[in-house]
């Protein structure tokens, strides 16, 4: 036996021992591809991309490789991991194997000093960091160089996030390319993902291998999940889809996840299912971090039948015996869908996966897609503003200069940062002065790819061939073949009946109308720059009170019906009027309105006027009149930031002579009727005009709210 063969045999023995410590079993063995990845990292110090199905054991590869590298005297493994839930699971798994794992993230700042001390003492085997840390100036300057110089292995988890073409592209992941270039020669790198098609694989490999002569090794396995039974149940109305869950959630095996596309849908559905007697809780981006921990534990311990969740419960949540995943509304791509359903059936012989798509899905896809990629005019405006400022500008300051909503602005700044056009410094952002060109062709290709993925999701729903094979083909898995278990291969495995009593329960819950509409409390900062002479808190004598909307457009019940009503102008349909009457009847106001005023609407004047008239008629309230639009009414478009939205409506509403006369002799609050509310600045400015004209209080009522 040669020395190389002897070394290989030793590595394999040590790797197997480490694996058995990790899983707590003396007879555990490696799955296909795991040992090959460990050997590539430990013996040959390669850069390796692993593309394997969810539950294959990618974490076993980097923990075993860590144990072997640390035994050789190498520095700690650095894992870039996208979610706190994933970090918590990884830390616990590492501890089971005797590996000391710690984390630096936004939620444990009080522990950073202890972590740095432990790192300095060489007591840490694994350090987990979020990609957002890589974008922190102080972290990049003070800690990253030392980590790069001393780490024994770099792991990039959920590596599809690096790629523009990945379904979950994250600008912060682009920093990893810079980190790769700073690693000493011979530092092994492992990138892992379960959701990468050929285009994403090619992109990630190019980034892993940039500036190096050695090729990146790719270890790719079959993506079929033998435990999953896939199905699609098409019901035309929201109430029937909800009713199916009311009737049949308890029939699904074990405990699981019910995914929705929006926060409001998750909250509404969880409440409906609880009212029907099911043990469920909502889990969304609005859920407090401490509550998330409690909810994840409740699901792991089978204390709830399901968590009703948005994609906030996605990558990283690990419950090997998860019994089912149901989607109320389809994700926008088969790749994203494959990732979410991959949470189920990792350690069970069978898990059920059911999709209940809705006609409103495409509207929701379009809404989220609109913020996915930067727009040239916005990028140019940001760069111009920073260049002309000559000093760092905060995000808040930029909002008064460029008309970009906060979330989109933060995403845009990250993209410009990783592309070298701007830099984050103490006090905000500065332009670097480096040449930067908007890559319109690339963004157009990405946008087209997203559109193609949406079409593939619609094709999946039609069920013209095996559903598992279809998902594998979307991920360019050459081993795709009919699974024999899905509803296309074997017929529906799920009940298709929707009992009338379940429909009644669903209707009783999701048909309820009325969502509080909170008033604006503060004027945006820096409005003087935009010619609007206000600042600080909105005075009580100028403000509107808490109002109501019939529903949010993302709500399961009235939200979907309002989408249809708002598509064109016309008389208010009677069911809409009756729902408005119910909202008014349930409104717990301190002082009942004594008159009605209509907002001027450019798109739906007849609808708004008819709702105001019917409220006046049915409530026996005087119809005081309609505010007059000034110079055509509000300027601009919806979707920008608060400062510009306020500037667009400032001075655009007037109390005309007839309305002024009516208000002069009027006592009591007025009900201000509008069609669609987004930023709330139109209602805020209109209420200010009415209060100035003598209205004692203003109670806003909108048919629908965005979101």
Q: From the alpha-carbon coordinates, what is the Rg to the nearest angstrom?
A: 28 Å
User: What profile does the largest beta sheet have?
Assistant: 7 strands, parallel
CATH homologous superfamily (4th level) name of the largest domain: P-loop containing nucleotide triphosphate hydrolases
User: Please, how many domains?
Assistant: 4
User: How many individual β-strands?
Assistant: 23
- What percent of the residues sit in helical stretches (DSSP H or I)? 40-55%
Identify the overall geometry: globular
Q: How would you write the strand order of the largest sheet?
A: 3-4-2-5-6-1-7
Strand content: 5-15%
Q: Spans with pLDDT under 50 lasting ≥5 residues?
A: none
Distance between the termini: 67 Å
Tally the helices.
26
Structure explained in plain terms:
This protein has 707 residues and is of the alpha/beta class. The chain has 4 domains: 3-220, P-loop containing nucleotide triphosphate hydrolases (Rossmann fold), CATH 3.40.50.300; 228-366 and 475-509, P-loop containing nucleotide triphosphate hydrolases (Rossmann fold, 3-Layer(aba) Sandwich), CATH 3.40.50.300; 375-437, Orthogonal Bundle (Arc Repressor Mutant, subunit A), CATH 1.10.10.10; 511-705, 3-Layer(aba) Sandwich (Rossmann fold), CATH 3.40.50. Helices cover 42% and strands 15% of the residues. The strands form 5 sheets. It has a 7-stranded parallel sheet with strand order 3-4-2-5-6-1-7, sandwiched between helices. Strand 22 (670-677), helix 26 and strand 23 (698-705) form a beta-alpha-beta unit. The longest helix is centred in the middle third of the chain and has 23 residues, at 440-462. It is globular, with a radius of gyration of 28 Å. It starts with a helix and ends with a strand. The mean pLDDT is 88.
């Amino acid at each position: 036996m040669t020395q190389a063969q002897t070394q290989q045999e030793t590595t394999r023995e040590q790797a197997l021992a480490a694996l058995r410590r990790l899983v707590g079993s003396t007879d555990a063995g490696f799955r296909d591809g795991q040992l090959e990845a460990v050997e590539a990292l430990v013996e040959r110090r390669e850069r390796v991309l692993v593309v394997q199905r969810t539950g294959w054991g990618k974490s076993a590869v980097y923990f075993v490789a860590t144990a072997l590298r640390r035994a050789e005297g190498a520095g700690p493994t650095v894992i870039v991991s996208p979610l706190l839930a994933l970090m918590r699971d990884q830390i616990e798994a590492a501890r089971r194997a005797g590996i000391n794992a710690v984390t630096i993230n936004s939620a444990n700042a009080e522990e950073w000093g202890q972590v740095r001390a432990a790192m300095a003492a060489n007591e840490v085997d694994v350090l987990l960091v979020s990609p957002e840390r890589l974008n922190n100036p102080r972290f990049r300057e003070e800690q990253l160089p030392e980590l790069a110089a001393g780490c024994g292995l770099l792991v990039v988890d959920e590596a599809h996030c690096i790629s523009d073409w990945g379904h979950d592209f994250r600008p912060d992941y682009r920093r990893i390319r810079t980190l790769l270039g700073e690693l000493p020669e011979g530092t092994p790198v492992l990138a892992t993902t379960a959701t990468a098609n050929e285009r994403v694989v090619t992109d990630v490999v190019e980034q892993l291998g940039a500036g190096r002569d050695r090729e990146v090794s790719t270890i790719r396995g079959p993506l079929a999940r033998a435990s999953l039974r896939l199905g699609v149940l098409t019901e035309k109305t929201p109430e029937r889809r909800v009713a199916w869950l009311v009737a049949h959630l308890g029939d699904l095996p074990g405990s699981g996840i019910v995914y929705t596309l929006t926060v409001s849908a998750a909250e509404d559905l969880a409440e409906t299912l609880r009212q029907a007697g099911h043990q469920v809780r909502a889990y969304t981006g609005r859920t407090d971090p401490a509550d998330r921990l409690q909810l994840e534990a409740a699901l792991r311990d089978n204390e709830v039948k399901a968590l009703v969740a948005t994609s906030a419960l996605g990558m990283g949540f690990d419950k090997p015996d998860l019994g089912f995943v149901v989607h109320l509304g389809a994700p926008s791509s088969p790749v994203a869908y494959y990732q979410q359903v991959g949470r189920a059936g990792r350690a069970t012989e069978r898990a059920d996966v059911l999709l209940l798509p809705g006609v409103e899905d495409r509207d929701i896809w379009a809404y989220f897609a609109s913020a996915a990629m930067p727009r040239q005019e916005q990028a140019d405006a940001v760069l111009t503003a920073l260049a002309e400022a000559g000093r760092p500008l905060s995000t808040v300051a930029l909002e008064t200069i460029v008309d970009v909503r906060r979330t989109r602005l933060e995403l845009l700044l990250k993209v410009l940062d990783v592309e070298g056009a701007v830099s984050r410094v103490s006090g905000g952002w500065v332009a670097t002065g480096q040449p930067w060109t908007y890559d319109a062709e690339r963004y157009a290709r990405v946008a087209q790819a997203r559109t193609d993925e949406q079409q593939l999701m619609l094709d999946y729903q039609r069920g013209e061939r095996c559903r598992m094979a279809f998902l594998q083909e979307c991920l360019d898995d050459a081993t795709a073949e009919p699974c024999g278990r899905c509803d296309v291969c074997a017929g529906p495995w799920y009940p298709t009946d929707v009992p009338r009593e379940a429909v009644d329960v669903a209707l009783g819950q999701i048909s309820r109308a009325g969502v509080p509409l909170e008033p604006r409390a503060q004027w945006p900062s820096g409005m003087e720059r935009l010619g609007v002479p206000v600042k600080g808190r909105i005075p009580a004598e100028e403000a509107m009170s808490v109002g109501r909307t019939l529903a949010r457009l993302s709500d399961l019940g009235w939200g979907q019906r309002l989408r249809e009503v708002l598509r064109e102008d016309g008389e208010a349909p009677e069911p809409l009027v009756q729902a408005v009457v119910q909202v008014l009847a349930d409104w717990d106001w301190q002082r009942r309105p004594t008159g009605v005023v209509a907002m001027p609407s450019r798109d739906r004047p007849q609808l708004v006027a008819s709702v105001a008239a019917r409220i006046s008629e049915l409530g026996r309230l005087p119809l005081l009149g309609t505010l007059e639009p000034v110079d055509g009414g509000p300027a601009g478009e919806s979707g920008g930031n608060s400062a510009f939205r306020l500037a667009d409506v400032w001075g655009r509403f007037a109390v005309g002579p007839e309305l002024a006369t009516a208000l002069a002799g009027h006592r009591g609050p007025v009900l201000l009727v509008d069609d669609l509310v987004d930023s709330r600045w139109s209602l805020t400015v209109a209420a200010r005009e009415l209060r100035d004209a003598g209205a004692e209080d203003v109670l806003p009522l909108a048919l629908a709210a965005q979101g």
